[in-house]
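User: I'm writing a tutorial on reading structure tokens. Could you give me a worked example: one chain, its sequence, then its tokens, then a sentence or two explaining what the tokens reveal?
Assistant: Sure. Here is the example chain.
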Amino acid sequence: MLGSFIRGAGATVRSCSLRAALHPCQALRSTARLPGGSPHVTQRFFLSTGPKTGPQTGPRLQLRTRVAVTLALGAGLVIAWRWVSWEKQQILQKQRVEQLKEVAVGQGNFSLTDHTGRRRTKRDFLGQWVLLYFGFTHCPDICPEELDKLSATVALLDRDAALPPVQPLFVTVDPARDDVAALGRYVKDFHPRMVGLTGSEEEVKTAGRDYRVYASAGPKDEDGDYIVDHTILIYLLNPDGLFLDYYNRMKSEEQIADSIRKHMKAHVQL
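And here are its predicted structure tokens:
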């Protein structure tokens, strides 16, 4: 009897081993019964198929954390650098404004009459960007060329709706011939916003002196005509009425417009 029981148990174990091989990751239970049908020996087999696979929370998570921290620090440094750079530009611009106040150019407040007969002063143009040119209506070529360039510059800037409008001004250096009517006819040939300014000889000299403009009338010919030798510059004034820059004959309208855009971008309102 005992021999038969042992042989039966061995057979059961071999059978369970076979099932375990065919069905891994299962707990196999084998029970041997003694004669009479009551269980006496129970064997269990636990099979493993290797390490479990699932979400990894070790080195990979640590790497992601380091990358996130690095990106956050980098973004913070970029923002801080931009803020410092902006702050530096503001300080430099304010220093430049203070320096411009000390420059003896355009510090006066001219009082002249425009081409419509209206009395105008420099204060009337505060809050606007101004391009200013001194010349005379009888100028054969240089003044028309410079005023054409000035008008073209204003037109280029007008194409950018994000920029404030620029006010073109023309101040005569020949008030004896350039009265209100003469200026009214003359400015029609240039930008539609062009304002012509004239006045008495003393008023015109005072306006020119503020911008260090040289003007000298030449000898008259047999017809009483004459040429006025004068400074050939286009002046840029900011909305505070301060002289910012000037452009000679070598500058094109594109170069002048580009310069004005940069001045507008850097401008700090007082």
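What the tokens reveal: The chain has six helices and eleven strands. Residues 1-34 have pLDDT under 50 and may be disordered.
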